[in-house]
Design brief:
Blueprint: E1 6-9, E2 18-23, E3 29-32, H1 46-49, E4 65-68, E5 71-74, H2 77-95, E6 100-104, H3 110-124, E7 129-131, H4 138-148, E8 166-170, H5 174-177, H6 182-190, E9 194-198, E10 211-213, H7 220-233, H8 239-245, E11 246-247, H9 249-257, H10 261-268, H11 272-283, E12 289-292, H12 294-297, H13 302-315, E13 325-328, H14 335-338, E14 347-348, E15 352-353, H15 357-367, H16 381-386, E16 394-398, H17 402-405, H18 409-417, E17 421-426, E18 438-441, E19 450-453, E20 458-462, E21 466-467, H19 475-485, H20 496-507, H21 519-525, E22 528-529, H22 554-557, E23 578-580, E24 588-589, E25 598-599, E26 621-622, E27 628-629, E28 636-637, E29 640-641, E30 660-661, H23 676-681, E31 685-687, E32 713-714, E33 733-738, H24 754-759, E34 765-767, H25 769-775, E35 782-787, E36 790-798, E37 806-810, E38 824-827, E39 834-835, E40 839-845
Parallel strand pairs: 6-7, 6-16, 8-9, 8-12, 9-10, 11-32, 12-13, 16-17, 17-18, 33-37, 34-36
Antiparallel strand pairs: 1-2, 2-3, 4-5, 4-18, 14-15, 19-20, 20-22, 21-30, 23-31, 24-25, 26-27, 28-29, 33-40, 35-36, 35-40, 38-39
Helix pairs in contact: 2-19, 3-19, 3-20, 4-13, 7-9, 7-10, 7-11, 7-13, 15-20
Length: about 850
């Protein structure tokens, strides 16, 4: 049978699950399984399974809009682009280049993020550029860089998680935020390992844990310090490791000893016996990991909080060793790549520092400009938004919806309204786009080719599968046309591969070195882990990616490793070794060098407990309580879809009409696994490519040395401090925010999908039964949550899964239920991360009509 599917990746979270876009005989396309991709092995959550729905012209923008008489009306592309260029140019001439702002997004491909940063600095000449990824992983990035010299979300592949002895998962409800990943933790427990979950709520993820610690919001730092205190007091430190591979232990040890267990219990609400049990579980096995997500990171002390968890890993010898380490579960689809290549306020491509003269010289050479002409670092994301209408008079925004997603959102909305000019490029008419003077309709994931970088540091190729609707162009086209109108005729190609080739050169020698990665390699190898330099000389560095910092070079000292002189292949797999790739007829898969079989199924999907199941009738999905939905597809849990869903029996039920599929990509020479049919026939056995004169990529970092000048990890002494806003008599409760399984980020796309909206139709306020009784609130009653910044209204949801002193709201919705109206923009002094996860509130029960 001729293969007509296009292999690609999901547009949503940082797992970047593999999927196929398959045309239907009756027209349109559907999402189908792609079991050869090792991260999800064909399983998809409800968002991924319905991702093609947003491709429908009926749900998205298909023509430029300009504001006339207070209304947005359709206009031609030349008119819209002329207007943007005219207004940006006039603003720059009148107020200077820093009166122009640029705001990007963690969902932009690497090519778009790179081009956007270049456009801001070369064409506009402004320093005022940042992106919404600042709100996601910046604290973990800052802490990782301090400790290890390099930030990559996970320094090891996800396939290592089931093989370790214990995982502490801090502030992540991955059963809802990235459901296909839960199976790694289920397999961990099946293999005899233990899972500790730290979360103020008993989430679906916490229900899977061997031990659930429920600290008061904003006290994760004290918790980590208390655990380290007990590690020291009980003699569980790895003194040889500390002596040989770290620096700064004495200061960090002294800081931890100031946080004795009883003191930590009073701060966090986690009992001393629970603290001791957590230390026992973490230290008993030979290997262990700590993984953090937004919970500890989105705090005004997020960098120190993550640093404390890293200190726990270092003190026990659980970093830079096989099957051990600290990692961050990056959130957005390209949150990792988005912070590596120039749309962040203080960075240049390759994760170079904007204030480093050598970095400026290298990138300026690639761009063909004078290094002195590049602006310096600018404002961070919230500070940039806060400056709109005053210092920053005009804004170009791509792929973000801060009206819903930013902290103190009502204030940010007011600042956006105060701009002299706002231009937005987006797929849909988001709440932010509704405020714009010009809106440009741009292509999305399946309508364009480009690369993303997953939370593993795996660079992936998304392939164009369908033709965009008439009237829709790519972001690269937008930047090319605006640059031309603003006097820069060259340097902004519209072909993504051409942009990537320039990105390779710009990143060469930097910490995030992509210079050895090509589109061809990405297609042949199912992704490549960075750093991956072009030249594999092996001089002074190691195959595990730890920087050797030869000759004290600034860029190398920041962390880019190259292949080791001994020629060791990262992960223990030699080039030429046969490895099995997921998705064979028996549904068995192995990652390269994994050594153990893991279950997969062409139709099977994982439920809320992460178990993968298969059924001849289309698959089964396991629910949060262990119950199983049959062949029909979806299991409702608490009014929402199950954590993972199966693909439908009837292909037409998920078909997207009105789309023109492209011809499938031609098989690459010598690569039998391009199509699903060929893959099945070949039993999906291939070899690790022999990269002649090239680098194989770096799945596992730091095994020989860390990416610091001396190769040692750095303890950073930290001390607990209170949140920026503690409860008082007027605001006696704490609010924390998060996501639900059926919506994504600001909801701009998922709220347009009927199935997802039916599962999660609107916001709610979680209240503990004791708090609800004290307030006189019943389940479903409208309640107002009030902070010093505003008021949000939503129905009460009574549940014992939350602490009595805490309320929870999901943040996907605009309007009166907008959770981020309430949140506190207090910033971490290092990462400039706002404190989304904790602020003081009160709850009021509303009467009829209120």
């Amino acid at each position: 049978m001729e293969n007509t599917s296009t292999p690609t990746h999901c547009p949503y979270c940082a797992l970047q699950c593999g999927m196929n876009i398959t045309p239907l005989p009756q027209g349109g396309v559907e999402v189908t399984e792609r079991p050869d991709f090792p991260v999800n092995r064909g399983a998809l959550c409800g968002k991924g399974r319905t991702a093609a729905q947003v491709l429908s012209p009926a749900l998205r923008l298909t023509a430029p809009l300009v504001r006339e008489g207070g209304r947005l009306v359709e206009a031609s592309w030349p008119r819209a682009l002329d207007l943007i260029a005219e207004r940006l140019g006039a603003t720059r001439e009148r107020y200077g280049p820093d009166a122009l702002g640029v705001f990007g997004g963690g969902g932009l491909t690497n090519e778009k993020a790179y081009a956007l940063g270049k456009f801001a600095r070369v064409v506009l000449g402004t320093s005022q550029i940042d992106y919404n990824g600042r709100f996601c992983m910046s604290s973990a990035a800052a802490a990782g860089t301090k400790a290890f010299g390099l930030d990559r979300g996970l320094p090891f592949p996800l396939e290592d998680i089931p093989k370790t002895g214990c995982v502490i998962l801090v502030g992540s409800n991955l059963a809802e935020t990235m459901p296909p990943s839960l199976r790694f933790f289920t397999e961990l427990r099946e293999n005899g390992g233990t899972l500790i979950v730290v979360d103020p709520r008993r989430t679906r993820t916490a229900e899977q844990a061997d031990l659930h610690l429920a600290p008061r919001p904003g006290t994760d730092l004290a918790l980590a310090l208390g655990l380290l205190h007990l590690v020291v007091a009980e003699g569980r430190t790895d003194e040889e490791y500390i002596r040989e591979r770290t620096t700064g232990w004495e200061e960090a040890r002294a800081a931890a000893m100031a946080h004795w267990p009883e003191h930590v219990e009073r701060i966090t609400g986690v009992s001393v016996p629970e603290l001791r049990e957590a230390v026992r579980l973490f230290c008993a096995p030979e290997t262990a990991m700590v993984l953090t997500a937004r919970g500890p990171e989105q705090q005004s002390k997020g960098t120190d909080t993550v640093g404390a968890w890293i200190n726990l890993c270092l003190a026990t010898g659980r970093a830079g060793r096989p099957l051990s380490g600290y990692g961050c579960l990056t959130g957005q689809g390209n949150g990792q790549g988005g912070r590596e290549h120039g749309q962040k306020a203080d960075q240049l491509p390759g994760y170079r520092k904007l204030d480093d003269p050598a970095a400026r010289a290298h990138v300026a050479g690639v761009w063909g400009v004078d290094p002195d002409a590049l602006p310096g670092p600018g404002r961070s994301a919230y500070e940039l938004l806060d400056a709109l209408g005053t210092d920053v008079r005009a804004l170009l925004l791509m792929g973000s919806n801060p009206v819903v997603s930013a902290p103190r959102a009502a204030h940010v909305e007011q600042r956006l309204r105060s701009l002299d000019f706002l231009a937005v490029a987006d797929v849909v008419l988001s709440e932010t786009a509704e405020l714009a003077d010009v809106v440009l309709p741009v292509t999305q994931w399946a309508e364009e080719t480009g690369t993303t970088t997953s939370l593993e540091g795996r660079v992936l190729l998304r392939r164009q599968a369908v033709t965009p609707p008439p009237g829709v162009h790519s972001d690269l086209y937008v930047l090319h046309e605006l640059a031309d109108r603003l006097g820069v005729e060259k340097g902004f190609p519209t072909d993504p591969e051409e942009v990537f080739e320039e990105l390779r050169r710009a990143s060469a020698g930097g910490p995030a070195d992509y210079s050895g990665i090509t589109y061809r390699r990405l297609a042949e190898e199912n992704g490549v882990f960075w750093p991956c330099p072009e030249d594999s000389t092996g001089a002074g560095a190691t195959a595990d990616g730890g920087a050797a910092a030869p000759d004290g070079a600034a860029d190398t000292a920041e962390g880019a490793g190259t292949a080791g002189a001994e020629g060791r292949f990262p992960g223990g797999t030699e080039p030429g070794t046969p490895v099995a790739v997921a998705g064979g007829p028996e549904g068995v898969s192995e990652g390269a060098g994994a050594g153990t079989a893991q279950h997969a199924s062409a139709a099977g999907t994982a439920g809320a407990d992460g178990r993968t199941t298969a059924d001849a009738g289309g698959g089964m999905a396991a629910g949060a309580d262990g119950s199983v939905a049959g062949a029909g597809g979806s299991l409702a849990v608490d009014g929402e879809d199950a954590a993972l869903d199966v693909l439908p029996d009837d292909p037409a039920s998920e078909a997207v009409p009105g789309l023109t599929p492209l011809a499938p990509p031609a098989p690459l020479p010598g690569h039998p696994t391009t199509g699903t049919e060929a893959a099945s026939e070949a039993r999906l056995v291939r070899t690790v490519p022999r990269v002649v004169g090239g680098h194989p990529g770096t799945p596992r970092l730091f095994l020989d040395r860390f990416a610091t000048p001396d190769g040692r990890a750095r303890f950073v002494p930290v001390f607990h401090r209170a949140t920026a806003e503690e409860p008082d008599s007027e605001y006696p409760l704490l609010l924390t925010t998060g996501r639900v399984v059926s919506q994504y980020q600001s909801g701009a796309q998922t709220r347009r999908v009927a199935e997802l909206n039916a599962a999660a139709p609107g916001p709610f306020v979680e209240l503990h039964p004791r708090l609800a009784a004290r307030l006189g609130a019943a389940d479903g009653d409208p309640v107002a949550v009030v902070s010093r910044r505003g008021r949000a209204v939503a129905p009460a949801r009574i549940t014992p899964a939350i602490r009595p002193d805490t309320v929870f709201m999901p943040f996907h919705w605009p309007g009166e239920g907008r959770a981020n109206t309430l949140t506190n923009p207090a910033l971490d002094p290092t990462s400039r991360m706002p404190e989304f996860k904790s602020c003081a509130v009160r709850v009021e029960v509303l009467g009829p009509g209120e």
